[in-house]
Design brief:
With 315 residues, this protein is an alpha+beta fold. It has three domains: 54 residues, Winged helix-like DNA-binding domain superfamily/Winged helix DNA-binding domain (Arc Repressor Mutant, subunit A, Orthogonal Bundle), CATH 1.10.10; 203 residues, Bira Bifunctional Protein, Domain 2 (BirA Bifunctional Protein, domain 2); 43 residues, Roll (SH3 type barrels). The chain contains nine helices and 14 strands. Helix 6 packs across helix 8 and helix 6 packs across helix 9. Bound molecules: biotin.
């Protein structure tokens, strides 16, 4: 219903009685719906010529659904974690590509048990359900593909060049712009489904980050000096994730690896790698066909990591 109403308001001005009739509503019912839209941030003009939409909020269920019409989309003003909601959708049999987006999260989570700061009104918190025909061993490549897709979507949408810090961080310079968190349910040799959680700092100002994160984090707004509408960015990311994960399934790891190498902030650099309570130092040499990071220690020994935290040492 609100989709139809918004469509009519976008094409407006349209007179109240006409609009109420077209939607099968009483005039009081129409007025209630218009007021409800206004409370959610829609600016709707009412003049003698009728009702007309002046401005839509930059993130809403309707905007997302209009940009991604065929997709199952769940939008929440406040979620615990969008990843949890996407798991629930998966268990109810939702199709691959289904999307959960929230304006804020009370329990946003990052990798390695860290919290993901998720204030309202500024950033993007989204989780996409994937049902790829890949083995659990290939799942690491999916993390790379989703991070890559997000970086490409941001570049396409804003022109900003984003670098990738293996395996899942999006960086601008040395600061973190976003990250991805993949969670999966598997059987011994089969991926049942994957939830790809994506967090991007979009319109956050410095003061939206806790003081401890301010030197380490950035946002599109801080980098570009302008606000970026979130629904359009979310839609672009969803499409890129679909494209890159599809490519991974159909063409194997090489196209994803090639693009990841080109955007990598760590390959060829001296780095510290923290993994399972231990710290290693060396040159980040490459990413192998399973998505593992190859680290060359000064002794010449080559180490392979499936999961780790990487910190760049060289300038
Ligand atoms: C990281 O860099 O540690 C990954 C951060 C992932 C954050 C996103 S926000 C949407 C989704 N829901 C969550 O709780 N986490 C991911």
């Amino acid at each position: 219903m609100s989709q139809e109403l918004l469509k009519a308001l976008k094409a407006g001005p349209v007179r109240g009685p006409e609009l109420a009739r077209a939607l099968g509503l009483s005039r009081a019912g129409l007025w209630k719906r218009i007021q409800a839209l206004r409370r959610r941030g829609y600016r709707i003009e009412a003049s003698r010529a009728g009702y007309r939409l002046l401005q839509a909020p930059e993130l809403s269920a309707e905007e997302l659904q209009a940009l991604l019409p065929q997709r199952l989309i769940l939008y929440k003003e406040l979620a615990g974690s969008t990843n949890d909601l996407a798991h629930q959708l998966a268990q109810k049999g939702a199709p691959g590509g289904s999307l959960v987006v929230a304006d804020a999260q009370s329990h946003g989570r990052g990798r390695m048990g860290r919290a993901w700061v998720s204030p309202p009104g500024v950033n993007l918190y989204m989780s996409m359900l994937l049902r790829p025909a890949l083995s659990p061993q290939e799942a690491q490549l999916l993390t790379l593909a989703v991070a890559l897709a997000t970086a490409q979507a941001i570049k396409g949408h804003t022109g900003l060049q984003v670098a990738l810090r293996w395996p899942n961080d999006l960086l601008v310079g040395r600061k973190k712009l976003g990250g991805v968190l993949l969670e999966m349910r598997t059987e011994p040799d089969r991926l049942l489904y994957v939830v790809a959680g994506i967090g991007v700092n979009v319109n956050a100002r410095k003061t939206d980050f806790p003081p401890s994160l301010r030197p380490l984090a950035t946002s599109l707004r801080l980098e570009l000096g302008r606000q970026v509408p979130r629904a359009a960015l979310a839609a672009r990311i969803a499409k890129e994730v679909e494209a890159w994960t599809g490519l991974l399934q159909h063409k194997g790891p090489q196209p994803v690896l090639k693009a990841c190498r080109a955007l990598s902030a760590v390959l060829g650099q001296r780095v510290l790698v923290r993994s399972q309570g231990r710290v290693f130092e060396g040159i980040a040499e490459d990413i192998d066909p399973l998505g593992r990071l190859l680290l060359r220690e000064s002794s010449g020994r080559l180490l392979r990591f499936f999961s780790a935290d990487v910190q760049r040492l060289s300038a």
